[in-house]
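Ticket #4471: structure export looks truncated?
Reporter: QA, pipeline team
Priority: medium

Steps to reproduce: submit the single chain below to the structure queue and open the exported record.
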Amino acid sequence: MMELQFIQQEILEFMAYKEWAVKPYQLQKFHAILAKKQLMQNKEDLVFGISNGRTSSSSALTYNEMNRLIDHLNGNVDKDKADVMRKKILYYAHLMDWHTEDKKIDWKRLNEWCKKYGHAHKYLNDYKLDELPLLVSQYEEVYRNFASKI
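Actual output as written to the record:
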C-alpha cells in the first residue's frame, strides 16, 4: 500500500512538472473562449474544478491548469490521453526503481532512454499522442525484460 501511495505521489509530481504561474495571454484566451461560448457565468465553477478546489480565481491557476482548462473548453482531450500513456511509462519506471537518491523519478535517465531507444528519439514529454502507444509498448518490453531477471 505504501508503494502505491508513493507511486501516486510521484504521478502527481509528474503532473506538476513544468507548473508555473498562469500567463496573461492564457487569461485573455480563457476569457475570450468563455465570452464566445457564453459561459462567463460558469467561470468560477470551471476554475474551482480544474484546480481541485484550490481556487475560484482564474489568475491563481497554474500555467498547466489553465492549459488543461482551455483545452477542455476547446474540446481537446488528446493531452489527457497522452498523459495517461506517459503515466504508464512512469509506473514501469517506478517498478524498475528508476529513482534519484531522494526517491523521485529519475527524469534524466528516463529522458535519455526515450531519446536513445524510443522510436522517435525524443524526450518523453515531446512525444505526441499518436507516437506514445509504440513508445509504451517499447517501454513495456524493457519492463518485461527487467521483471524476467528478478
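Status: closed, not a bug. The export was complete when the record was re-opened. Leaving a note from the reviewer for reference: The mean pLDDT is 87.
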